[in-house]
Predict the 3D structure of the following.
Amino acid sequence: MLPTQHLTLKKFEQFKAAMRPYDYFEMLDTLDFESLGEGDRFYLQCFGIYNSELEEETFMLRIRTAGGRIKAEHFTSIAAIVKEHDLQMVLTARAGIQLHGLEADNILEVFKEVNGMDGLTTWQTFGDNIRNVVTDPYDGAGKSCKIEVYPLIERMQSFFLRNPELVGMLPRRVSVGITGMEFNAVPLFSNDLLFALAKKDGEYGFNVNIGGKNTEVAMPADIFLAPDDAVEFFEALIFAFNRYGSREKRTRSRLFHMIEDIGMEGLKRKIAEFYKKPWSEAGELLLKKRDFGDFEELKEGGFGYRYRTDYGVVGPEEFEAIARFVMAEGAEVRLGIDQQIYILGLKSAEVPFEKRDTAPTVVACAGSEYCPFSYWSIKDESHMLPQSEIEECGAVVGFSGCLKGCGRHKHADIGIVGLRSSRFGKDDRSARIFLGAEYTSGKRAAEAVFQSVPLAEMGRVVSLVLDEFKKSGCDTFEEFSASVLNRFEPEFLSLWFMAKLESGSDAALDPQMEEMELLSRTFEGSEYMEVARESGFAEAAGRIVKDMWYEQEAPEVRHVKPSERRSR
C-alpha cells in the first residue's frame, strides 16, 4: 500500500486508499454492471473496462499488445468475438485494440474470453497505470535496427502487469516507448519515458528522455544506458514516481509536472534512490528521418508490408483475411502506433489486399462516434483531408477531436484539433491547425498557427501548407519545419497563409527575409497590411478570417449535451 502521507483527500486517491484495484478484481464476478458507481468505474479501468456515466449502457474493452506484437490466431479469435456480439473494432495510437458496443450483459464474458488468450491481456490499459509499452513495428526486423527491444518490453511488462502494488496505484498514467532503430516508421517522443537509440564509446544503447505526453516532447535526461540496464532504470523510475509524484491535482500529476516542480536533476536524484548503478552522460542520439513505403525490405531478407486501415477502424472480415494470409505465408503480424497493421516476413513484395486511398501517415483519434470528449467524428472528417497530397509529401498528420491530443497533433508535421465555433454558420465545426514540430529527434512540439478554420476550408488550408513545403525544396516536411517555418513566429505564419489564401498569391516563404519585408514585398497595398503594422500579425490574420468566413449573423449553435448523445 502507499504510505499514508501520499494518500490525499482527492477522489481517486480515496478510492485507492479504501481498496487496492488489484483486490477489487475479486468482485468482478458478482458485480452488477447495470448499476455501477463512480468507484466501480475507476476500478474497472484498471482491467481495461471503460464505462462512462454519460453513456452508462455501453462499455468498451481495450486490449494490450506489448510492442504491438500479436499472433495471427488472435486476429481470428477477436474477429469471432466482434461478429458474435456485433461490436466495432478500433486500433489505438498505442498499438492496442478497442472493442466498442459492449453491454452490461456481455462485457464480463468478453473480458474473460480475451484475457484467456495466450499473450493478450486487457489489464492496466486505462487509469493510473503503465500503459502499453510501444516501439517501432519493424523492431528486430528493419535494416536500421541495432537493438531488438521486444525482449526488454517483455521484461518491463512482467514487472508491472498485475503487480498488486502498482495496479491503478500510480499518481497518473505512464506511457513508455523504446526503440533500437535508427530510422523509425513512427514518432515516439510523446511518451512519458523514452529510451531512444544512441551510441557512446562505440557501443549501442539508449539515451533517456522523460516528461513527454500528447502535448509535450519528452526532454533529454542526459543519461546513457546500456541495453541490459534499461529495464532496471525503468523500474527505478516507476518506484520514484509512485512514491514522490504529486497526487494533489490530477491536472498536474504527470511526470512532466514532476519535472516542472523539482527539475530534471531533482527527478534524477529521486530515481537514484532506487537505481543503485552509476549512469553516464547521454551519448550520440541516432534517430534519423526517413519516409516509409507500404513495402520495406527486411535485414534478413524478405519484405514487410503496411496494411492501410480506415484511420484505425477495422472490420472483423479484414482481421480474418489478414490472419489467413499471414498463416499461409508463415509470416507475422504487428500493430503500429500509426493505427496501421504490419505484416513481416513476406517472400515477395506482393499481397492480395486492395490498397486503400487513405493516407497512411494520418493518425486519427477515436472521434465522437467512440469518445464522449471529442467534438468531431474524426474518423469521418479525416477523409476530407487531401489524401494524395499528404502521401506525396510524406507528411505526418495528427488529428485530435479535443485538446487532450489523442491524435498526437503536436507530434506531427501538420496537427489538427477539431473544436466548436458559432462564427462559421450552420456548420459549427472549427479546426485549429498546428505546424513546426521536429518530432523525430524530439526537438520541439508543433505550435498553433491557425486558431480557427471552418471544416469546409480545412482541406484547402492543409493543401496550401503542403504546397508551400513543395516550393521550399526541402526533402522532408520536418526539414521544412526546421529550416523555414520555425524561422518565423506562428502569428506571422497565420497571416502569411491567410493572405495567400485570400489573394491567390503564389509567393513562397524566404527564410532569409524579415517577416515584415516578406509581407510588404508580396501584399503591399492590401488593407490588412495596415492592420499588421498598427495592431500586429494576429489581428491582421483574424481580420482576413472574419472577412472570408464569418457569418454576418451567426446562428446560435445548440451543443448536444453528453447525456443526449446517441448510444454507441
In short: Residues 362-549 form a domain with the Sulfite Reductase Hemoprotein; domain 1 fold (CATH 3.30.413.10). The CA atoms of residues 125 and 535 lie 49 Å apart. Confidence is low (pLDDT under 50) at residues 554-568. The longest strand covers residues 55-63.
